């Protein structure tokens, strides 16, 4: 089943064609990487998918529901979460509190409300705290629960961002350069984490410059150049596509 469909998406900023007539479909449970040179339109695409940018033209469907013009909080509630290229955490809150705040995004609709409504009621905050610990364990941050987010080492701040995205109970997780600024060991740890998230049944869309990571974990790769989709397919096909080599990989 396709969980996301983008039809002829276009986003212009004045005379700048950031995204031009881009279409693709994403299958539920896949890891899809968006690659392309600087300024190709990758972040603008994420901004359109999450309601941060309003498309100039085109349609976006999430689980067959059109979300093209919905505000970002509504899209988050429906089940699309993201991390940012520049980490955005509540720096004056603890690691645990950062995750708990994200869980509140879905309290009205998600698992937590179902537990509470189901009569298995203990204490809302206690349930949320326990669940938050599970997310911290998943990303390997359980020993940092009471650390102030601003005091976390950089690589762990990126993991916390991922935990926060997961805590919204989103079906699609958008990761914007999750390994930016990481050393090779941290990068392979994030690679394992992304595989674990896939095993949870999540769909992952990834903007990533590390080609080893992209080729290793992606089910499909979409290549943008100057706002236009120039290739799409399994990693092996994309890697050998002459247009892609010319536009991107050849310049590495
Ligand atoms: P990078 O890899 O450098 O992050 P990108 O592929 O994410 O690049 P975008 O950031 O989406 O590319 O930018 C695509 C184009 O749109 C660029 O020419 C950029 O300057 C332009 N652009 C993006 N956001 C805006 C904006 N808010 N106002 C004007 N132009 C913008």
TrEMBL record:
Gene3D superfamilies found in the cross-reference section: P-loop containing nucleotide triphosphate hydrolases
Biological processes per GO annotation: D-alanine transmembrane transport; L-alanine transport; L-isoleucine import across plasma membrane; L-valine import across plasma membrane
InterPro entries in the cross-refs: AAA+_ATPase, ABC_AA/LPS_Transport, ABC_transporter-like_ATP-bd, BCA_ABC_TP_C, P-loop_NTPase
PROSITE patterns: ABC_TRANSPORTER_2
Any one GO molecular function term: ATP binding
Keyword annotations of the record: ATP-binding, Nucleotide-binding, Transport
Protein name: ABC transporter ATP-binding protein
Cited Pfam families: ABC_tran (PF00005), BCA_ABC_TP_C (PF12399)
ABC transporter domain ranges (all copies): 4-251
SMART domains the record matches: AAA
A GO cellular-component term linked to this record: plasma membrane
Source superkingdom: Bacteria
């Amino acid at each position: 089943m396709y969980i996301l469909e983008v039809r002829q998406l276009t986003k212009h900023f004045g005379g700048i064609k950031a995204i031009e007539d881009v279409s693709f479909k994403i299958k539920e449970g896949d890891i899809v990487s968006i690659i392309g040179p600087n300024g190709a339109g990758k972040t603008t695409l994420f901004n359109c998918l999450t309601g941060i940018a309003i498309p100039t033209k085109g349609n976006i469907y999430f689980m067959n529901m059109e979300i093209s013009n919905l505000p970002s909080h509504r899209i988050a509630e429906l089940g699309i979460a993201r991390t940012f290229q520049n980490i955005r955490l509540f720096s004056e809150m603890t690691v645990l509190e950062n995750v708990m705040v994200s869980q509140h995004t879905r309290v009205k609709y998600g698992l937590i409300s179902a537990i509470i409504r189901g009569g298995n009621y203990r204490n809302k905050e206690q349930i949320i705290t326990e669940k938050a610990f599970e997310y911290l364990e998943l990303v390997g941050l359980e020993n940092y629960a009471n650390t102030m987010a601003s005091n976390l080492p950089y690589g762990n701040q990126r993991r916390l961002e991922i935990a926060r995205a997961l805590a919204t109970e989103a079906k699609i997780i958008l990761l914007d350069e999750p390994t930016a600024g990481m050393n090779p060991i941290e990068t392979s740890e994030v690679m394992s984490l992304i595989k674990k998230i896939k095993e949870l049944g999540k769909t992952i869309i990834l903007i990533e410059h590390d080609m080893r990571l992209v080729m290793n974990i992606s089910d499909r790769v979409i290549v943008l150049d100057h706002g236009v989709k120039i290739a799409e397919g399994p990693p092996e096909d994309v890697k050998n596509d002459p247009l892609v080599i010319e536009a991107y990989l050849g310049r590495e």
